[in-house]
Specification:
single chain, 3-stranded antiparallel beta sheet, alpha+beta, 405 residues, 8-stranded mixed beta sheet, 16 helices, globular
Length: 405
């Protein structure tokens, strides 16, 4: 009889766990649960009393095996086709983080009687992956959610749909695409995968501390969060909060402490600092992101209501873009120039030297003290802000120059 695995077996075996939940979905004994650790990240724990010792959890783990299962048809030395563009529906585009290309792809799948899976902000401001088969519910999957979504048993639901002959679009961060493909074991003719250019996932503790801080400031509970509101433009987007008693908070991302903590990389999941899912070739059929630097790469596409960068990795991705073409404006662009302003496409974030200090501080609280510290670091003096701006512009110029040369 096989010996049951210990409660922390997976955590000890995969210290750089991405939280993709492939292990949970693959367990035949339902012995695995995802629990939040002291840093605000979910990790798998095993119920020793029900574990049957089959080790399917470790066999399916894409991080442990270091195997990029189901890779796209492009080789490591083949550049994907790159496009800049947007959704032709103004309302959809404005409700999306960048250009609304995901919504066009999703509508094409739904019109075929398919199902779309993606991250949705649910009750209690929790982010979960959900299934949508009605165009009227597609709004739930639009927009950025700067939190790691809870996959739950969604991979099992995807498998059931595919077995039933239902076309599926699955969207997520790259490690979630890796988790799904590893769980399925192979690509499927009816499955279209779409990932995003991912900076990393921030600690739930940071977000919870931020919400507590804002609720104390406004004396009311937060009922809605829009991480990428475009009222101030796409390039200078704002974080918008709506409170139960009707008040609103909006601040450009350059002035908001939550966005500061996220963009300063002080609160990302440990595995995000050495992410294996940035590898080429990409596992997804299509990668979507913001077309940062479009004003230099393709000035004719520059607009401030959102421009998407679209990277096509496979024949299936090409067919999907063609099918959605009636809803999109797309223009071919140079791949190397396009990703020059998007280093997160191929590189992990750098772990700050004081990462441990911030992680322990967010764990122990109180929320106000740490939000104030982040605010001071993110919003320094005018002179320091000016120097940072000049430095960012200079780095952007150098990246673009290198891409052109």
């Amino acid at each position: 009889m096989r010996k049951a695995l210990s409660q922390n077996f997976l955590i000890q075996s995969v210290p750089s766990c991405s939280g993709c939940s492939a292990c949970l979905n693959s367990c035949p004994a339902h012995s695995i649960v995802m629990r939040e650790n002291g840093g605000g990240f979910r990790y798998p724990h095993i119920d020793e009393s029900s574990c049957i010792g089959c080790r399917k959890c470790i066999k399916v783990c894409p991080v442990f095996n270091g195997e990029m299962r189901g890779c796209s048809s492009t080789g490591a030395d083949h550049e994907p086709a790159a496009y800049g563009g947007w959704n032709l529906d103004d309302e959809v585009r404005l409700a999306s983080s960048s250009g609304g290309v995901f919504s066009a792809l999703a509508m094409s799948v739904l019109e075929k009687g398919g199902a779309v899976y993606g991250a949705s902000m649910e009750e209690e401001l929790r982010v979960r992956h959900v299934r949508v088969d009605d165009a009227g519910q597609l709004f739930r999957l639009r927009g950025a959610k700067y939190r790691q979504s809870d996959i739950g048993t969604v991979y099992q639901s995807v498998r059931q749909d595919l077995k039933a002959g239902i076309p599926v679009l699955f969207s997520g961060v790259p490690c979630q695409i890796g988790g799904l493909l590893s769980f399925l074991g192979a690509r499927h003719e009816l499955l279209l995968t779409v990932d995003i250019i991912c900076h990393g996932v921030p600690s739930d503790h940071l977000f919870e501390a931020y919400v507590k801080w804002q609720e104390a400031n406004y004396g009311s509970r937060v009922r809605k969060v829009d991480f990428r509101n475009k009222n101030t433009g796409w390039k200078n987007y704002s974080l918008l909060l709506e409170f139960e008693e009707g008040r609103r908070y909006a601040a450009p991302f350059t002035r908001d402490p939550f966005m500061g903590g996220f963009l300063m990389d002080i609160c990302l999941r440990p595995g995000c600092y050495a992410c294996m899912f940035h590898k080429t070739p990409r596992q997804a059929d299509i990668t979507l992101g913001d077309f940062w630097g479009v004003q230099w790469v393709a000035p004719e596409l520059d607009r401030d209501d959102g421009v998407s960068l679209v990277l096509e990795h496979s024949e299936k991705g090409r067919e999907a873009l063609r099918a959605a073409g009636g809803r999109l404006y797309l223009e071919r662009v140079d791949f190397q120039k396009a990703i020059a302003q998007n280093p997160s496409y191929s590189h992990s974030a750098n772990m700050p030297a004081d990462y441990r200090k911030w992680a322990e501080g967010l764990e122990r609280g109180p929320a106000r003290r740490w939000m104030n510290r982040i605010s001071r670091r993110w919003n320094p003096s005018f002179l320091m802000r000016l120097l940072r701006k000049v430095w960012r512009k200079w780095k952007a110029f150098i990246r673009t120059w290198k891409a052109k040369s």
